[in-house]
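2024-03-11 09:14:02 INFO receiving multi-entity request
2024-03-11 09:14:02 INFO entity count = two
2024-03-11 09:14:03 INFO echoing inputs for audit
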Amino acid sequence: MNFDLPDELLLMQTSVREFAQREIATVAPELDRNPRFPWETLRKMGELGLLGVLTPERYGGAGLDTLSYVVLLEEISAADASHGTIMAVTNGLPQAMLLEYGSDEQMQRYLPRLASGEWVGSFCLSEPHCGSDAVAMRTRAERTESGYRLDGTKAWITSGGEAQLYLVMAKTDPKGGARGVSCFLVEKDTPGMEFGRPEEKLGQHAATTTSVTFDGCEVPREARLGPEGQGFILAMASLDGGRIGIAAQAVGIARAALHAARDYAAERQAFGQAIREFQGVQFKLADMATRLEAARLLTLQAAWLKDRGYRVTREASMAKLFASESANFVTNAAIQIFGGYGYSRDYPVERYFRDARVTEIYEGTSEIQRMVIGRQLYREKGR
Amino acid sequence: MIDFSLGDEQKQIQSLARQFAREVIAPRAAHFDREESFPREIVERAAELGLLNVGAPVETGGLGLSMLDEVVIGEELAWGCMGIYSILMASELGITPIVLGGSSEQQERFLRPLVERGGLAAFALSEPDNGSDAAAMKTRAVFGGDEVVLNGSKMWITNGGIADVTVVFASFDPEARHRGVAAVVVEKGVEGLSFQKIHGKLGQRAAHTAELVFDNVRVPRGNVLGEPGDGFRIAMRTLDRTRIPVAAGSVGVARRALDEAASYARERHAFGQPIVDFQAIQFKLADMKIGLETARWQTYYAAWLVDSGMPHTEASAIAKCYASDVAFAAANEALHVHGGYGYVDEFPVAKLLRDVKLNQIYEGTNEIQRVVIARGLRK
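2024-03-11 09:21:47 INFO inference complete, emitting structure
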């Protein structure tokens, strides 16, 4: 057993923390108030390799492991959750899936652009009426002479309208259930593709979310990622990695809230002393810190196992479930410690609270994580 | 003898308030939340219907409704919008010190015009650096001749600056701590009183919240409620009561959350069936229902103690703390049942969560309620 992070990773963590606090945390309140996709700061993240952490250097990425990825994602998310989401999606889904299942041509075409941050990638699975229930999916991909024609609507698409590459799940065989779904790489300006208005969300305002509609959208045969009928299975396998990313993001948000509450409790006076002297406040801070640490350890463990080639379906779901619930607990408790000030925009904790809420919803709700964990308990009796 | 039924008149005002919430408040709630603007027409309409300042005594031209009446109304209005209800609730909070601590001359002078005009009242206790710790108060009252001069600032004041009548708590003798606090009525438009609206609240954005600044504000000596040293006691007696309408508002939010969650769960399908058929969703709804019913009964009980003239400090603290915790959990679960749709403004549930967070904070945080409850257990 060794819980030390490698020296190189500690150095990277320090420099990314400084970068994130200097460049991102400072613009986060303004992006929350006047939402726009943060291309300027994303370009800087791209220069540091943060938008292609897992992609090998030969494709222009940083070529790091999952452990490094989650440590750095925590830093970005502690500065601003929206940047964390964009980073998690483009790294954890399009690039991870291209690396795992892409042809040489697909990798050469897309990975360098994504890894450098010139392009941002997006992932289109949910639809207005269905999320994790892929059998109910209605988006169709019908074969044409040269490829496929896509028809249907995808919902809740992170970076919708801003991203240049979309991984789209669509049914090639409507009767095939989960095995009737294939995955397609669709570029932004493809005719027949339209984006809805940005959703007005509770939080994460800078991570633009839209619907994406395909109306007779033609893509070539080479746009299919992996074998026909395997799309949903590939997507589910990739979500293991994606969920570790959301866990790291939740840990980052929770950390920011804990630190803000810790500092405020030392300053604010009531009944003749700093409120940190009251056991009611101490115990709250202690519970916040305990959940944060436990969430981080589950996240690091899932990443560490993944780097060693284990299948981490259960561990990723556990990390995502626990970290997102902890982030909601911690950010809510932080508002409470701030009292009236926590409810106002003068302090960042109300934003942390709004931002954290969706970590329990996207990439599979907490309920879906519990279903996965419950199922894996029987599939992996040996572990 | 125990009787859990509402009287016929209570059922009538309940149905009046319910209709008002459904037809007038709820359809406009999202608009005022988004614009962060004051719903003047709705407040005027509420005044016309007799839903504003309901606790003003009959002798001053008011309806003199009981606390139980007030919580029955409060639940309904908060179902429509917690932020809009807070405007009316804060006005009841503002008149309560005058009802409890004012002479009949003062009640006549301040409450009758308020009732006749449908004006708002406000209650100014918290300051930028202190809330429930009222003995640390920095706002100063200097008595001289027939005047009192006020200096300082008050924070988080609902209706602050737009209220016709504001009860301000200020210290005239800091050494005497809470015994040196006076309750002073300040009328709108007096020289030296200014306010700054607080923008960007997490929720309850229809409610106008402000910081009040007193710069040599002079008011007649006759505006002091009771004796000069009675202020703190008047404030505490007021809050012992007015925490109950906060509990009622929380019950209203919890009921709205359950209504929204149950109706969505019946419509939304996943894995071939409405999600309400999944036990995981059923258990969430059942827990919301358990919280709603128990919070409502505790709220009614505390109101009944007030109306019966019995001690109610502990019961009102329990009601406020419990009902707001229940409502927060219900709003959070309702959002969750909606999944991604719960996270966007198109559906009302995200607003429920943003709004109800404040119920755990204002009129004494839930931590302060626990301090109050535990105090009785240490004796």
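2024-03-11 09:21:48 INFO post-check: The mean pLDDT of chain B is 96.
2024-03-11 09:21:48 INFO post-check: The beta strands of chain B are 121-124, 140-144, 147-158, 165-171, 181-187, 193-197, 209-220, 269-270, 273-274.
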